[in-house]
Specification:
223 residues; alpha+beta; 2 domains; 8-stranded antiparallel beta sheet; 5 helices; 26% helix; disordered N terminus
Length: 223
């Protein structure tokens, strides 16, 4: 009779696997490093762009105006005492158009000296440049009508255009400010239906009182 073989050595079999319909859970998926890098780059770009926009919105400070400022009534500041002393009593003033824009301001004034119809007329133009530097062009513009006399000790640059018995023009650049004083003869006028010319006046050395009045006006404009 053959009997079931004996188990020799005590070797045991593992338990059989149990199959189920639900699969075992998967290990967590690792995040892709390039997505993190891309996200960081986007954030950094946004921050940089925002900073650049804010920088672009900043207004750069304008040039130093050296105390000069826009004025409405230029005639009130221009006393012209030196010219009045040699030309006669100052007559009625005329205030020209006033411009005050972010880039530039300009005021004008006119006056007369001496007897009516036979005296001298005067005009003043004050221009304040708030953005550009007028210095590179000033000398060329001042001398566009010919070679002029350079006046020292008045602003940064000053030129006098001597026009003899007709008067003269003094142009000054002081920082961002340009000031021009022009003295000229009155034109012909009518007497009893006839045109009469104003008699000539000896204006030799008139640049001296014009310079004195210019310095006084420059000081008044900066008060």
């Amino acid at each position: 009779m053959i009997s079931e073989p004996e188990l020799v050595g005590g070797v045991a079999f593992e338990s059989p696997e149990v199959l189920t319909e639900t699969p075992p859970p998967r290990p967590p998926r690792a995040r892709r490093p390039w997505l993190w890098a891309l996200g960081g780059a986007v954030v950094a770009s946004a921050v940089w762009g925002g900073g650049l926009y804010a920088y672009g919105q900043k207004k750069e400070p304008g040039p130093d105006l050296g105390g000069y400022k826009p004025v409405v009534d230029l005639c009130e500041l221009a006393e012209l005492k030196a010219l009045e002393a040699i030309l006669g009593k100052r007559g009625t003033d005329g205030v020209g158009p006033v411009m005050d824009e972010p880039a530039v301001s300009e005021s004008m004034c006119s006056a007369s000296f001496g007897a009516e119809d036979i005296g001298q007329d005067l005009s003043i133009t004050y221009t304040l440049h708030k953005v550009i530097d007028p210095e590179p062009e000033f000398a060329a513009m001042a001398q566009r009508h010919g070679k002029l006399q350079r006046i020292d000790g008045v602003g940064e640059q000053a030129y006098f255009d001597d026009q003899g018995e007709h008067g003269g023009i003094l142009r000054v650049l002081d920082g961002q400010a340009e000031i021009e004083i022009e003295l000229y003869r009155q034109g012909d006028f009518e007497v009893n239906g006839k045109l009469v010319s104003a008699p000539p006046i000896d204006l030799t050395g008139v640049d001296v009182p014009m310079t004195q009045d210019m310095l006084a006006l420059m000081a008044a404009l900066k008060k």
